[in-house]
Amino acid sequence: MDTPFVLEQLYEAPLAQVWHALTEQDQLRAWYFPQLQEFKPVVGFEFKFTDEGSPYQKEWRVTQLVAGRKLAHSWMYKGYPGSSEVTFELVAEGNKTRLVLTHTGLASFPNDPHFARRRFENGWQQILGSNLKEQLKLPSLD
Length: 142
Description:
Layout: E1 5-11, H1 15-23, H2 25-31, E2 36-38, E3 48-49, E4 58-59, E5 62-66, E6 70-77, E7 84-93, E8 96-104, H3 117-137
Antiparallel strand pairs: 1-8, 2-3, 4-6, 5-6, 6-7, 7-8
């Protein structure tokens, strides 16, 4: 059975600021993936990444979008079986924002250390618990 990975994080930032960090290309590059070259918050849009020669090239596509509340994208690797989906859901709590991340389909990837569930879990802890938190403390230049 494939148990989804769920992580909740409360940010000291208003919902609009967190939504901007999730949907603006330069913001995403800063906290999510520096290899990101092009992103648009449009269902069906395929993320563009720099090819740095890694054997694990990402193939992501926006799968769901509810303005100000929900962004989801597929998470696959070129040349490897398996397909997962990442969903970011936002809930305003006064001047704070609760982000609920759900990553489904992790068991569909090959039985290989690179695709181990713990790697994803540790990665999300770093990405959401540190990277995004620090990004939200910076003044917006937009």
